[in-house]
Amino acid sequence: MRAITPALLGLCVLGIACTVRPRSDAAASAAPDTASANTIASGPGNDPCAVYIERVAPGVRCAAVDDAHCTCELVAAASAPAPDPAANSSSASGAPATPASDAAVANLEFAKGPQNTIVQCVSGPCPTRSADFITGVYPPIPLPASGATVQLEFRAMHYKPYVGTYNLVPGRNYIQFALEREFGAPESAVFQFEGAPAGTTVECVSGPCVNNKAYTVDKFPELPLKDDGATLLLRFNAPGYRTAMTSFQVRRGPNAVPVLMEKAPLGK
């Protein structure tokens, strides 16, 4: 039975309070009410018994029975808030909770490859499935505690695709690969000059030039290349135009080179 409040107990002693019983619940309602005590119908100031007791005894609720009696019950206190699970510093096993540490990541740095080589992750904890240039920044790869293995595919024009398997470690991972040229792939760079004025000549000034002679744009020779990505400095001349210089990165196979020339002032 819930304890009777001191204020209500004093009223009962003075003969002002009425029947006092704990707040009813499922168990209390099932049992017969054995407490019965009559009280006067009014309290000091001629207030009805129920009104007076509720005013002076917090936590008590009263109801009039008849003109001469009333009955009161203790009102249950507000239940305590449920404990916050996040505030519990121990796990279900009783061990202290440990804060989650930052996950380890692998950062990939690729070896040099043919011009416009792309890489694509095909299996493992791939951070992306898109094909990206190896010269760009590749997304970091989160690593579980047991480590991780990924398969990466490398592709480039005129080369056979290559798939390599790599065991990753936290931090920097230098990724090496080797691409084999396709059978019959071109070994020389050939040129097509676009937008050249009539009578334009082109001369290879620096880079892996065959020679430094001036050729008409339709007669410029093929340029044997050991590797894609070589840079040429070309000089263009045409009647009625200023001399133009163009730096151009070439690869084996067809190369389209735009020719931008400015007209020379009259008399020059």
Describe this structure in words.
- With 268 residues, the chain is mainly beta.
- Helices cover 8% and strands 35% of the residues.
- It contains 3 helices and 17 strands.
- A 4-stranded antiparallel β-sheet has the order 6-5-8-9, with no helix packed on it.
Key features of this structure:
mainly beta, 4-stranded antiparallel sheet, 17 strands
**Widest sheet: strand order?**
6-5-8-9
> Nearest-angstrom radius of gyration?
46 Å
Oligomer: single chain
Low-confidence runs (pLDDT<50, min 5 residues)? 24-41, 85-101
| Percent in strands | 25-35%
Order of helices and strands: HEHHEEEEEEEEEEEEEEEE
Helix content class: under 10%
The SS-based structural class is mainly beta
Average pLDDT confidence is 77
Largest sheet: 4 strands, antiparallel
| Record field, number of beta strands | 17
Shape: elongated
Please tally the helical runs, counting DSSP H or I stretches of 4 or more residues. 3
From the N-terminal CA to the C-terminal CA, the straight-line distance is: 116 Å
